[in-house]
């Protein structure tokens, strides 16, 4: 960052780029401190390859959180995220796929500006002007598919809708939670709120209200006792922040009710360190107690503070610079297009994971679609065609799937037990109406010869699948 930019930062307040980078970095750390399985699997024990990648993500995010106004820290963070998520792929959360696209855009913006100006002395605001539109489109696309994927009986039925566990996560009377009209209000209210937020973000006149609506929605998700989803909600809040006025940071610094000590760059770094320490401490508490209350409480303080600042200073004013949905780097505008097509993959016969299908109840495997609009998969690819269920199993992972009456697409079954876990025999499989007992190595080899197909490295690395539910699930699935 140039001297002029750093001076302006100190006197007038943080730039919007600085604020968005800080929020993104904090949310990246939160991913590995508020996700119970990740804490257990990679945080509190060493797993070759995966643990170093998690550490890389957290360390580079911490550096960016401390120095969000330094281009070198932002690029280091984006590079760390890109390497980490790419290394962990394809078994990553849906919002990490979004982080991967955003990190790629940040790296591309730096390279473009460096080559264009033949210098590495680049401000974060210059970079944000390039990658910001991509981040905005990622959020809009998230809202589109967050609504579209849910148009199915799995989400729209009170018996299986994932809208209800989030509502049940609040200390409300059973008479209210059990009321059918409240349940349907939660289900259809989710679709309506997400749709309205998406449409409002498309207009400069209404984006302020779209931010408030969307951020409030994700704040509720983050504090619900249903789980610990601070990681997803914090990242969603960081994407909403990219719609804020360009002088948002200056407005905050002009706020007299905010203590002057918090406007000092050094003091804010200390506050950031305390926040990260709290994230780590509460992660250990979550792993030991399995109780997410303190983690959700920390997110509640974080989210309420941000919501208040957006409510107070996020309005569009006469001197507000127009926001952009088109990147000056024309090639970078293809990233949102790529992401939009990627999220269509369940309907195309490709992967069902990492495509914003979380909590949607969508089912497209085995040639059966439960979507009310796309009633039959387009079948451009065959990865979802064959589904294997488990009548009897020795592997604990398959026993859990069998207990939940869930199956695996054959591609994922082959990949998992070829590269990740040893398959234990005996095993009884069901494919369609055919029961296939596997009692010895000979019967397994016969099964593999009949059903397994060659898998390239790219296929194994890119394709992500969820466990397969029935067309009409009887409970909420992530």
What is this structure, in a nutshell?
Helix content is 60%, strand content 4%. It has 478 residues and is mainly alpha-helical. A four-stranded antiparallel β-sheet has the order 2-1-3-4.
Architecture overview:
This protein is mostly helical. The chain is built from 22 helices and 4 strands. A 4-stranded antiparallel β-sheet has the order 2-1-3-4. A hairpin with a 2-residue loop joins β3 and β4. α2 packs antiparallel against α13 and α4 packs antiparallel against α5. The relative contact order is 0.12. The N terminus is likely disordered.
- N/C terminus separation: 42 Å
Give the low-pLDDT segments.
1-10
Portion in helices = 55-70%
- The spatial strand order of the largest sheet comes to 2-1-3-4
Number of DSSP-assigned strands: 4
Given the C-alpha coordinates, what overall shape results? globular
- Outline the biggest β-sheet: 4 strands, antiparallel
Order of helices and strands: HHHHHHHHHHHHHHHHHHEHEHEEHH
Overall average pLDDT: 91
Structural class from helices and strands? mainly alpha
Strand proportion, as a percent range, falls in under 5%
How many helices in DSSP terms?
Answer: 22
Structural Rg: 23 Å
């Amino acid at each position: 960052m140039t001297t002029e930019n750093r001076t302006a930062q100190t006197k007038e307040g943080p730039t919007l780029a600085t604020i968005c980078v800080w929020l993104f970095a904090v949310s990246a750390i939160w991913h590995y401190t508020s996700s119970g399985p990740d804490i257990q699997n990679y945080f509190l024990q060493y797993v070759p390859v995966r643990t170093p990648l998690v550490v890389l993500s957290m360390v580079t995010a911490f550096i960016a959180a401390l120095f969000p106004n330094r281009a070198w820290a932002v690029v280091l963070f984006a590079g760390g995220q890109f390497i980490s998520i790419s290394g962990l792929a394809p078994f990553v959360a849906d919002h990490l796929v979004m982080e991967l696209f955003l990190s790629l855009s940040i790296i591309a913006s730096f390279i473009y500006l460096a080559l264009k100006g033949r210098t590495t002395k680049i401000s974060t605001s210059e970079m944000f002007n390039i990658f910001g539109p991509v981040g905005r489109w990622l959020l809009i696309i998230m809202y589109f598919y967050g609504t579209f994927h849910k148009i199915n009986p799995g989400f729209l039925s009170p018996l299986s809708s994932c809208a209800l566990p989030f509502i049940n996560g609040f200390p409300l009377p059973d008479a209210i939670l059990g009321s059918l009209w409240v349940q349907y209000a939660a289900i259809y209210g989710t679709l309506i709120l997400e749709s309205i937020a998406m449409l409002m973000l498309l207009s400069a006149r209404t984006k302020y209200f779209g931010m408030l609506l969307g951020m409030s929605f994700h704040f509720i998700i983050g504090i619900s006792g249903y789980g610990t989803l601070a990681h997803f909600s914090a990242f969603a809040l960081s994407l909403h922040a990219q719609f804020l006025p360009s002088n948002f940071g200056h407005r905050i610094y002009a706020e007299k009710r905010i203590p002057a000590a918090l406007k000092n760059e050094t003091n804010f770094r200390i506050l950031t360190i305390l926040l990260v320490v709290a994230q780590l401490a509460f992660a250990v508490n979550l792993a030991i107690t399995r109780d997410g209350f303190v983690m959700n409480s920390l997110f509640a303080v974080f989210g309420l503070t941000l919501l208040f600042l957006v409510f107070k200073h996020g309005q569009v004013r006469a001197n507000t610079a127009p926001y952009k949905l088109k990147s000056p780097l024309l090639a970078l505008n293809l990233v949102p297009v790529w992401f939009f097509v990627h999220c269509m993959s369940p309907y195309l016969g490709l992967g069902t994971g990492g495509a914003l299908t979380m909590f949607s109840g969508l089912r497209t495997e085995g040639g059966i679609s439960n979507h009310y609009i796309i009633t039959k998969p387009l079948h451009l690819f065959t990865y979802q065609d064959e589904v294997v269920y488990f009548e009897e199993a020795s592997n604990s992972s398959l026993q859990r799937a069998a207990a939940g009456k869930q199956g695996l697409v054959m591609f994922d079954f082959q990949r998992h037990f070829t590269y990740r876990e040893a398959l234990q025999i005996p095993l009884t499989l069901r494919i369609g109406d055919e029961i296939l007992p596997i009692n010895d190595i000979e019967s397994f080899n016969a099964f593999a010869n009949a059903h397994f197909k060659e898998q390239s490295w790219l296929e194994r690395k890119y394709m992500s699948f969820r466990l397969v539910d029935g067309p009409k699930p009887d409970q909420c699935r992530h």
